[in-house]
Design a protein that fits this description.
Shape: elongated
Number of helices: 5
Distance between the termini: 78 Å
Largest sheet: none
C-alpha cells in the first residue's frame, strides 16, 4: 500500500514540476550551482584556513629546536599525553594535527560563505532595486569575517614564532 502512495506522490510532484517549468521565465543559473560557484571562486573562503595553517606551521617549526633541547610542549593538543607541559608529539603527528586544525577553519569559512551567499541571493531577489547595495554589503561582510577569523586564529602563532626565534638566538640554538 505504501509503495502506491509513494509512487502517486512522486508522479504528482514530477508532473507539477514540468508544468511549473513550462510557465516560468528562464533563470540565469540554478540556485545551488550559482551558490557553489561563487563560494568556490571567493578567496575569503580559503584565506583564513591558509593563513592559520601557515601561522601554525611557523610556530611548530620554530618550537622544534626547543624540543630537541629538552623543553616540553605547552599546548595539550600537541603532547603525547594530551596534557600541557609534557613531551610533544612527533613532528609528523604535529604536522597532521596542524592540517586537521586548519581544515576546521576552512570548514567554518566555507559554511559561513555559503550562508552569506544564500542570504545575499535572497535579499537581491526581494529587493531588486538594491542589488548593488546588497552585493557590496555582502562583499564587505565576507572580507571582515575572513579578516577577523584569520587574525583570531593566527595572531597568537605569529607572536609565538617571533618569541621562539628570539629565545633560540638568546640560547644559542640557531
Amino acid at each position: 500500500m505504501t509503495h502506491w502512495v509513494v509512487s502517486l506522490v512522486t508522479l504528482t510532484m514530477c508532473a507539477s514540476v514540468s508544468v511549473a517549468a513550462q510557465t516560468q521565465e528562464p533563470r540565469a543559473a540554478p540556485f545551488v550551482r550559482d551558490i557553489v560557484t561563487k563560494v568556490v571562486l571567493d578567496p575569503t573562503t580559503y584565506v583564513p584556513g591558509m593563513l592559520t595553517y601557515g601561522a601554525m606551521r611557523l610556530d611548530w617549526n620554530s618550537s622544534q629546536v626547543f624540543f630537541r633541547n629538552g623543553y616540553v610542549e605547552q599546548h595539550a593538543g600537541y603532547t603525547v599525553s594530551g596534557v600541557g607541559n609534557t613531551a610533544s608529539v612527533s613532528r609528523e603527528i604535529g604536522n597532521r594535527r596542524i592540517a586537521a586544525d586548519s581544515l576546521k577553519v576552512l570548514q567554518l569559512s566555507l559554511v559561513h560563505n555559503v550562508a552569506e551567499r544564500v542570504i545575499e541571493r535572497g535579499l537581491t531577489r526581494r529587493y531588486p532595486a538594491h542589488r548593488r547595495l546588497v552585493r557590496v554589503a555582502g562583499h564587505v561582510e565576507r572580507i571582515v569575517a575572513a579578516a577577523y577569523v584569520s587574525y583570531a586564529m593566527s595572531a597568537v602563532h605569529f607572536r609565538q614564532t617571533r618569541k621562539n626565534n628570539r629565545l633560540a638566538r638568546q640560547f644559542g640554538y640557531d
